[in-house]
Design brief:
mainly alpha
């Protein structure tokens, strides 16, 4: 009976070990499948990250170019404003000169009239 019991215990232990080994193999296969999925996700995420880094670099370049263009436009606007102010000053001087010329013509005309009268 002891041998029979020991034989039965050995068979049960062997079956249990076999079942455990089968379960461990199944878990290992499942984990390997999950590992492959995770590796694919990591690869895709790295690719997406590289793509986003390139996009950020491209947008940074565009922003820099726009900033440079804006700075150039601001400088051009300053020059135009200065030119406009100078043109306004020259226009004011021209009007003053025209008024002075009119006064001088009138004075000359009056002097000529006085000369012809005398």
């Amino acid at each position: 009976a002891t041998v029979k019991r020991l034989s039965e215990d050995l068979r049960n232990t062997s079956e249990s070990g076999s079942n455990t080994a089968t379960e461990l193999l199944q878990q290992q296969e499942q984990l390997e499948g999950e590992k492959k999925i995770l590796e694919q996700q990591v690869t895709r995420i790295k690719s997406d990250l590289d793509s986003k880094v390139n996009e950020v670099e491209e947008l940074t370049g565009k922003l820099s170019a726009l900033s440079s263009n804006l700075s150039a436009m601001v400088e051009e606007r300053k020059v135009q404003d200065q030119q406009l102010q100078e043109a306004s000053r020259q226009q004011a001087r021209l009007k003053a000169s025209e008024a002075e010329v009119s006064e001088l013509r009138e004075l000359i005309t009056n002097l000529k009239l006085d000369l012809t009268k005398s």
